[in-house]
Design brief:
By secondary structure, the chain is of the alpha/beta class. It contains eleven helices and 18 strands. The strands form five sheets. Strands 6-10-11-12-14-15-18 form a seven-stranded parallel β-sheet. A hairpin with a 7-residue loop joins strand 16 and strand 17. Helix 9 packs parallel to helix 11. The protein is globular and about 55 Å long. The two termini are 39 Å apart. The chain binds iron/sulfur cluster. The site of iron/sulfur cluster (SF4) has 9 residues, from loops. Iron/sulfur cluster binds next to loops.
């Protein structure tokens, strides 16, 4: 069975309700929405053992079935993970993602639990955020909403981002940010965000998206969504990642940047931010990717890369110096020439 997309909303093959989740309105609404849908199986758990309800004997099939599974639960431990350097804390609204990007960091991080899990007790989560904000007063506390997920595909029925954006809109001492590869953002456009939420779009050339980012929004749909949120007054930025060196890469990235610069209005209140990350991988990620995508064409030949030692004893394979220098020069020059009101945060 194929995972279903309406626009880019996630329509799962099965929805698993964890014990006690149905006390919350979000869970009740999701049950109402799916209970008569013959393509979606409803499972009510009496324990919290999710995995046994997801078919598949090996990682390859567990990954595919997991990606079509929505788990509705509650966030019990209200201790937020730190999220340095981009934010102070993760805001745990969703974990997992329906997308099947071959280089997704979640492939390694969520291991054999690739399902999408949403937390129905959003009010408890935001109350906890308030405690963290109070602890750091008078400093500003920044929360990241996409540290372990892409929260947009489930937003049409969780409304979690909507609640969070309103909450942070009312908070002078906190900011919220998240990043997405999707475009289902219309419900966020008219919220009172007060410029306190930054929405970033992860984007790439069409050939990279088509080859590696399965079940995500197209390049042009993401661009269209980014223009809408910028026009709605949100601080907005682009994470262009991962950058690959391939035949025509300069033409295609130039085309992408040109398209962005021609569409972005020039009267925005906030500069458009850019974060540029070249492709890199760890040995653990490579092994995992090849288990889940055995036919992957991702360039992961160690001999073509430079091994860069990491902080905790495991390193990454990055492009060699000449390649990295070329990437840096190319993006520095292009962004400088094409954009006026912009801020390049880093090119690595
Ligand atoms: Fe991972 Fe983002 Fe792709 Fe989802 S959209 S699979 S979170 S890279």
């Amino acid at each position: 069975m194929l995972v279903l997309l309406v626009g880019n909303m996630f329509i799962p093959n099965r929805v698993i309700f964890e014990k006690d989740s149905l006390e919350y309105d979000m869970a009740k609404n999701i049950l109402t929405k799916y209970k008569d849908n013959t393509n979606t199986e409803i499972i009510n758990l009496t324990t919290n053992r999710v995995k046994q309800h997801i078919p598949g004997d090996d990682l390859f099939s567990q990954y595919r079935e997991g990606k079509k599974t929505l788990v509705v639960g509650t966030k019990k431990s209200l201790k937020f993970q730190s999220c340095k350097p981009s934010a102070h804390y993760q805001l745990p609204l969703v974990s997992g993602c329906m997308g099947e990007c071959e280089y997704c960091y979640l492939n390694t991080m969520l291991g054999d639990k690739p399902f999408v899990k949403i937390y129905a007790n959003v009010d408890d989560i935001l109350n906890q955020a308030q405690k963290y904000i109070d602890e750091r007063l008078p400093d500003i506390t920044i929360f990241e909403g996409a540290a372990t997920s892409d929260p947009i595909p489930v937003e049409p029925y969780t409304h979690s981002l909507e609640k969070a954006i309103r909450f942070f809109g009312n908070s002078e001492n906190a900011r919220f940010r998240f990043v997405t590869k999707y475009n289902d953002i219309d419900s966020l456009l008219n919220l009172e965000h007060n410029g306190h939420t930054e929405i970033r779009f992860s984007i790439n050339t069409s050939s990279i998206i088509n080859q590696y980012e399965h079940f995500t929004a197209s390049r042009d749909n993401r661009i269209e969504a980014s223009i809408k949120v910028a026009k709605a007054g949100y601080p907005m930025g682009f994470l262009i990642a991962p950058i690959f060196i391939y035949p025509n890469w300069k033409e295609e990235y130039h085309d992408l940047l040109l398209e962005l610069s021609s569409k972005i209005p020039n009267n925005l209140k906030f500069p458009v931010t850019f974060e540029i990350i070249s492709h890199r991988y760890t040995t653990i990620a490579k092994t995992r990717i090849l288990q889940v995508f055995p036919k992957s064409k991702l360039p992961m030949n160690d001999e073509h890369r430079k091994y860069k030692y990491g902080q905790f004893g495991y390193g990454k394979y990055v492009y060699q110096k000449e390649g990295l220098d070329e990437i840096k020069q190319f993006f520095t020059k292009e962004i400088e020439e094409l954009f006026k009101n912009k801020k390049v945060l880093y090119i690595i």
